[in-house]
Structure formats: structure tokens, C-alpha cells
Amino acid sequence: MFIALLLAVWRPGVHAQQAEPSLTDLAKQAKNPLPDIINVPMQHNFNFGSGPGHDTQYTLNIQPVIPFHLPGDWNLVTRTILAVINQPEIDPGQGSTFGLGDTDLSLFLSPPSSEAFIWGFGPIIRFPTASAEVLGGGKWGIGPTVAGVLTTGPWVVGALVNNVWSFAGDSTRPAVNQMLLQPGISYNLPDGWFLTTGPEVTADWKAPSRDRWTVPIGGGVGKVVQIARQSLNLQAEAYYNVERPAGAAVWTFTFTLQFLFPK
Question: What is the pTM of this model?
């Protein structure tokens, strides 16, 4: 139902006679932070070694990405991240908590550019949608975000960066000042296969210096497939956090099921 609604709302530039893109073309779009197609990644993250009990935290990030074509060859790309979290026990006797996390909405305005290099900029807005205190910051947030991607031959090389500051919300909760930097490199192989790395480097500028940074290293493999008339990207990655705050996960396994909707 959710995916059908997305298709119903977005119809710019649809040409019935347009040739079907190849699996390799779709793989490049799947790894593009500013794609020209609707796509909905469902990212399953298993964070091992979290908290005082060294438990496994599970986060499902639902990330619909919708591009809109504007006059003058400008584009607007919207990226929403809605988190569903199972948080293991943090304090003794508290038990685990399952529910919604905060929601981030990024709006990238992309000027006319070449097919090889695309970039965009705009705001990121954080909504305090967490269903429990332990699952979110309890703050409204806003900040700038920038993304760019270079596609050359089999390579897709890009990066996305943002910083969020809190400006309203629960006055009893700490203020937020957080950065996300996500470089991405993908190398495309025949038949929709690709190798990829896309670590999410984060900095909590409010935390003490020893607990400020999370720096993962790793990567994975993916493949774009066609099931009936639906294009899917299937992707598995593993990352080890070489730098992490106290109580953060030691390493993460990520499986992504990404629905692709070529024009």
C-alpha cells in the first residue's frame, strides 16, 4: 500500500516508450544518493555488542527517496528515514524497548549538472517521533545537508554529509548537535552485481571527546534482480567500529532490501 501511494504521487517525466534500464544501470541508481528514480530501501541493521550487556540492537530504517523534476532542469530529491528500533536493556531492570525512533527528512535541491557528476544541497529536519524516551532525543532539529556523486565507468563515488542542531522539544532532554558523514564507493560488475562500502561516520559534538566519534570500516556486496516486474536491490554489508562511544556497538551487519521504480 505504501509503495503504491508513492507511485501514485510521483509521475513527472514518465515516458511509456522509454527503454527498460539494464540491471547495471539500476545498480548505479541504487547507490546514488541523488537518484533519478523512486526507490525505497528497507535497511535491517544488527548492531552487535551494544550496551552494558553487550547485546544486539536491531534497527529497521525505512528510507523512501522521491525525486521531483523542477523547471530549468533543477531537481528536488526528498529522503526520509523512519527508524523502527528494538533497544536492549540499558539500565538494570528496565528490559528491552521496541518502537519508533525519531524521523529525519532531507530535501536536496540539485541544480542542472552533467550526467557524470550530480550534487545537491538543502535542509535536514528531525521530528521527535520516538515512541519511548530511550529510542530518541525528544528534540526537534534542523541543519544543512549536502550530497554529491560521480559516476564514471563501473564506479559510483559519492558522499552525503549533514549536521543537526536541536531548536525545540522536551526541555528536560539534552540539546542535540550531531554530524553524519557517509562516503560511498561502489564498483559495478556484470549482471547487476556490485561491491560497495558506505560507512556512516558520526560525531556527537555534545559528548566528551572520548565518546564523540563512531567510525566504521567495512563493506559488502549486492545484486539487482528482477522479480516479475519489480526491480530489487539485495545488499549485505558488515562494518567494524574502530572508534566508538562507550556502550556503542562493536560491529554491525546490514541487510538492505531496496525497491526500485525506474521511469
Answer: 0.89
Neighbours of 7 (CB within 10 A): 10
Which CATH code fits 21-261?
2.40.160.40
Question: How far is it, in rounded angstroms, from Cα 16 to Cα 152?
Answer: 28
**To 10 degrees, the CA torsion angle through 134, 135, 141, 146?**
130
SS3 67: strand
In this structure, which long-range contacts are made by residues 203-212, counting pairs with CB atoms below 8 Å and at least 24 apart in sequence?
203/178, 203/179, 204/177, 204/178, 204/245, 205/177, 205/178, 205/179, 206/174, 206/175, 206/176, 206/177, 206/178, 207/245, 210/245, 210/246, 211/245, 211/246, 212/245
Name the amino acid, one letter, at 8.
Answer: A
Give the pLDDT confidence of 161-183 residue by residue, as tens digits. 999 999 999 999 999 999 999 99
Which one, of 189, 262, 178, lies nearest residue 222 by Cα?
Answer: 189
- Name residues whose C-beta falls within 8 Å of residue 154's C-beta, 6 or more positions apart in sequence: 187, 188, 189
Cα–Cα distance for residue pair 96/24, rounded to 1 Å: 41
